[in-house]
């Protein structure tokens, strides 16, 4: 022990020696897709979506950096899908090599590959697609946002813990809805629940809302939901925001709703207060004048990962940051009760998932009793044998 | 108060002292959810009283003469001051927003307060009730400790993950030491040669040697291991060191245990099972007993220090947070 202490002391003295000042420059690239208005006005996208998280991260990192001589500056860009590649090139030409991207999977992959040519590290703060953490993974792409697999596992674990093991799955007809539906099917298999029927809600187009449209919804939805086998819970897979919000209170058989409506899996929500999160919320609201959304938190967290790596490893280089955050030395407090870390087999941030009823945190997954030889957090999402990712050389 | 009266009171106190062999002290426990303070007798371990203490009482401390109780009423953005005999509120002190933890100068003045929401340490004069200084620190300041020679106040910042050493003369930060994630508490040894800082999410206690000039050197990080408990749930928060430095006690939060550490070898000797989500600790003045606040079982556990054994638990108010014991 004594020798270890001496060794440690030597190591710490090196750390304590004056370190070079670092100017850390990052970028946030957000691609805005043409979309219909959401079913609920609460889901309207603010102009500064994601960017607000970056602003708070710059403040938080800057405060810490002020004690070490590090400064943090993040450039934010919002573009149409057509402008995305040019916007990335501008960031790269400016010398930015740490880039948070809020885009769909297809654009994210193309942008990541272009960034890789310049040695840049990309953080995914929006795309849930499980394939990005499997066969479509990239060595220079780290995922802050939880995958569909993690979110579905979080929901189904809770259903199983409640002994609601017979699930009626309702999924949308668009590709993203079908992918999320598959994630729920996998989760049910993984945790011993049963999907008694999968019902598809066709997206027939048209506007999301009409004045006093609830009259029609109230008549049509129960009819759509009748004649289902015995089930304990309804799970909705509706990434497209077409129908899930209409399910609660309109079912034929009265059952709780989870997934895309009712009890939803989220990375953060504005009333999350546990584990010191109140301070995060008040800092965010004071700075931005609004409540936090998941894209804000995911962007904040991506830049906090960068900040933590800069603080601990004294480097602002993408390779140095990547090596440090994928190593065992990295851990970060993210107001989730346990440290968040990265999976070194696919670059996914390992994290608890909050279950939110649109008012409060109802529960947090992983649930008690879902064990894993490495960490209970690895009971959520793709484990080593399930991920087909080979871009990360483990060990 | 005039001089004659003071003398009279002093002799009365002396008379009382000589008259009672086992001196009982009052134990004050802040109940974060109950918005109260519970008072316990350290001789009989009976609950004497539970009185209202403002909204969300957390940090709690006492004046060196034992007459004034200071409570961080976090949601009221103020420090409330209570008479330890009558439990009447005497006055409030300006604290800056959302005060959580504080440390009092051994002379009774000033009070050094961590303001979680504002990245500040506020220095408040307990006599004039004014703010003497506001010191910018890291993000989410929480733990506060004062060096034996009172030349430094240490603040831990939970998101910056540093211990900041603030010069108490100039209010300038002179040293910053990086520690593990979410540092919650800072505790010097009585002789001032060591400092312990707990990291809740990092799961470690950083040990620093303190030189004569007060400068710190990180020498060790103590980690914990309990069979059958997920390592993520071993979350160090409150830290107390016996006056002779031989034993260090660390509250391990949701692991429901207090670790006993050898102050010399820094080896963990034992884990004492206490109530649920144990956060803060306080010794009785004779250091025979250590009291722990167990936030999720609404009780405190009394530990026999020499035996390193839990000897009883006492129900208090809702979600006990902090604890302080009246000095002799």
UniProtKB/TrEMBL annotation, chain A:
It comes from the Bacteria. SUPFAM superfamilies: Periplasmic binding protein-like I (SSF53822). Residues 79-202 form the Leucine-binding protein domain. InterPro entries: ABC_transptr_sub-bd_PQQ (IPR022478), BCAA_transport (IPR051010), Leu-bd (IPR028081), Peripla_BP_I (IPR028082). Pfam families: Peripla_BP_6. The keyword Signal applies. Keywords: Amino-acid transport, Signal, Transport. The keyword tRNA processing does not apply. GO terms for biological process: amino acid transport. Residues 1-21 form the signal peptide. Belongs to the leucine-binding protein family. PANTHER family: LEUCINE-SPECIFIC-BINDING PROTEIN (PTHR30483), PERIPLASMIC BINDING PROTEIN OF ABC TRANSPORTER FOR NATURAL AMINO ACIDS (PTHR30483:SF6). This is ABC transporter substrate-binding protein. It comes from Roseivivax isoporae LMG 25204.
